[in-house]
């Protein structure tokens, strides 16, 4: 698994010969694994030069694994945990090698403060020098490595959302389930790899059409195999609407310059990208409501992303995984479109609903967070509370979230630069179902685009918003086509039960 030079079979001796180690912090090496190099590591030191020369993926989450005393970095802990993480998700895995100080329990105990400090130094380097979001960091330590993980987290400039300290029994369980991965061709495809949510395994979710589904949130090996069959770069279709073709789309396909040339796409106009949610398609209500509203408001390019081959996975946990891969594909499509047409990211606004809300953030992240305006309409809750890839305020230059069914099918906490909680964010006037509440987000957005209104009152935090106890000095308009750059905060407003929904 770990990089070895034919002349230096011992990992430490190879590191010494390459980096001229002296006893001290530079003896701690970070072995980088990605899906591009899943079995042979790239050894890194906590320095700019080392990171710049590596294959580190700055748009991906990162897991750092810290071994215990004894076997060191090449022991069973990393041998199985690294491959397990890469099987589940395309991420960076950094196996922290502090084996020179881990030969015995006594020396290991003395070394862990230094290990924690160097791990923190590495993470702070990523954050301070490369702009990497520490919210995408996950630290896993076994035995003494668990204590080092805790020390590192306390010294990192930012919040690390998840730290796991395991003991020997958990290490053994990790060995067992990853061993099953290796012989999966002889076993049923229901080996559990990951729990996508902290709540019960089986929960109810509904699609935007109101159909209720009992979903399993435990990701299995079979799910991973199904996810691998979805290739968004080839299966996603992009439907262009303009004022010249407001009701019949012109399909665009990545790398097909002929279709683009024959279309009504105008590089001088702003471009709005719409991303639907679970079990939806290009013809779902989300699009049929927003496309005409957008074209009434302004002469735009409106591109409807049809990722239905990924979104229509009846297994909700597969759709969650497909959300992320589709987001990467949409970003690549936008990059190609700009290169072909001469458009720039400064002309874009991305809007997503439900799973599409999180996907909109993934798109922005993959475009170096340079999209001027990203809107999440009631981003999904199930499977996203602890998900590295959920919507983040830093995904765009200005990000806004509208919450209409929190705690049921929508995310409860604030996620953007500005978060609006109409009617407290859970039960909308005129609705008698969660599906209706969830859909109200795009109806409110459409009305805000065509006629404005929806003035919210500032709240202390999202707890105050859901309790409808907001009396802050500021007000702000929800939605619309103009980003509110420089503005932040949580806002509460009330709506009418029927159109027009805005009370002003």
UniProtKB/TrEMBL annotation:
<dbReference type="GO" id="GO:0016042">
    <property type="term" value="P:lipid catabolic process"/>
</dbReference>
<dbReference type="InterPro" id="IPR029058">
    <property type="entry name" value="AB_hydrolase_fold"/>
</dbReference>
<feature type="domain" description="Lipase">
    <location>
        <begin position="238"/>
        <end position="501"/>
    </location>
</feature>
<dbReference type="InterPro" id="IPR000734">
    <property type="entry name" value="TAG_lipase"/>
</dbReference>
<keyword id="KW-0964">Secreted</keyword>
<dbReference type="Pfam" id="PF00151">
    <property type="entry name" value="Lipase"/>
</dbReference>
<dbReference type="InterPro" id="IPR013818">
    <property type="entry name" value="Lipase"/>
</dbReference>
<protein>
    <submittedName>
        <fullName>Jg21528 protein</fullName>
    </submittedName>
</protein>
<dbReference type="InterPro" id="IPR033906">
    <property type="entry name" value="Lipase_N"/>
</dbReference>
<dbReference type="GO" id="GO:0016298">
    <property type="term" value="F:lipase activity"/>
</dbReference>
<dbReference type="GO" id="GO:0017171">
    <property type="term" value="F:serine hydrolase activity"/>
</dbReference>
<dbReference type="GO" id="GO:0005615">
    <property type="term" value="C:extracellular space"/>
</dbReference>
<feature type="domain" description="Lipase">
    <location>
        <begin position="26"/>
        <end position="164"/>
    </location>
</feature>
<comment type="similarity">
    <text>Belongs to the AB hydrolase superfamily. Lipase family.</text>
</comment>
């Amino acid at each position: 698994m770990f990089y070895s030079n034919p002349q230096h079979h011992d990992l430490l001796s190879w590191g010494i010969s390459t980096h001229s180690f002296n006893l001290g912090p530079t003896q701690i090496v970070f072995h980088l694994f990605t899906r591009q190099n899943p079995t042979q590591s790239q050894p890194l030191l906590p320095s700019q030069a080392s990171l710049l020369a590596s294959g580190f993926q700055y748009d991906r989450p990162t897991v750092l694994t810290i071994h215990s005393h004894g076997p060191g970095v090449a022991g069973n802990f990393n041998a199985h945990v690294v491959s397990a993480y890469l099987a589940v998700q395309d991420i960076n895995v950094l196996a922290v090698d502090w084996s020179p100080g881990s030969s015995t329990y006594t020396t290991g105990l003395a070394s862990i403060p230094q290990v924690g400090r160097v791990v923190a130094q590495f993470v702070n380097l990523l954050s301070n020098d490369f702009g990497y979001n520490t919210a995408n960091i996950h630290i896993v330590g076994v035995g003494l490595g668990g204590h080092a993980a805790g020390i590192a987290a306390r010294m990192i400039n930012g919040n690390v959302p998840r730290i796991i300290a395991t003991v020997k029994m958990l290490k053994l369980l990790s060995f067992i389930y990853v061993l099953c991965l290796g012989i999966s061709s002889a076993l049923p495809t229901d080996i559990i790899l990951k729990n996508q949510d902290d709540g019960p395994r089986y929960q109810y979710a509904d699609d935007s059409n109101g159909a209720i589904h009992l979903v399993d949130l435990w990701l299995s090996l079979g799910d991973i195999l199904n996810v691998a069959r979805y290739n968004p770069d080839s299966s996603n279709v992009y439907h262009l609407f303009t004022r010249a073709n407001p009701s019949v789309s012109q399909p665009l396909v990545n790398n097909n310059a002929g279709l683009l040339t024959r279309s009504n796409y105008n590089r001088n106009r702003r471009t709005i990208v719409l991303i639907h949610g679970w079990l939806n398609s290009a013809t779902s209500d989300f699009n049929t409501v927003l496309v005409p509203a957008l074209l009434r408001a302004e002469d735009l390019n409106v591109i409807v992303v049809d990722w239905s081959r990924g979104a229509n996975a009846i297994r909700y946990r597969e759709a969650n995984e497909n959300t992320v891969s589709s987001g990467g594909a949409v970003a690549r499509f936008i990059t190609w479109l700009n290169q072909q047409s001469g458009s720039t990211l400064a002309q874009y606004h991305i809007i997503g609903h439900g799973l599409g809300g999180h996907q909109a953030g993934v798109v922005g992240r993959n475009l170096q967070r340079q999209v001027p305006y990203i809107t999440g309409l009631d981003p999904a809750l199930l499977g996203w509370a602890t998900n590295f890839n959920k919507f983040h305020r830093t995904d765009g230059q200005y990000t806004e979230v509208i919450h209409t069914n929190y705690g049921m099918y929508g995310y409860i906490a604030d996620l953007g630069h500005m978060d609006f909680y109409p009617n407290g964010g859970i039960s909308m006037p005129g609705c008698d179902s969660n599906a209706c509440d969830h859909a109200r987000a795009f109806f409110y957005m459409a009305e805000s685009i065509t006629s404005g209104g929806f003035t919210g009152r500032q709240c202390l935090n999202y707890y105050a918003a859901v309790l409808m106890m907001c009396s802050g000095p500021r007000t702000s308009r929800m939605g619309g086509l103009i980003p509110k750059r420089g503005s932040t905060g949580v806002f509460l407003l009330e709506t009418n039960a029927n159109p027009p929904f805005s009370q002003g």
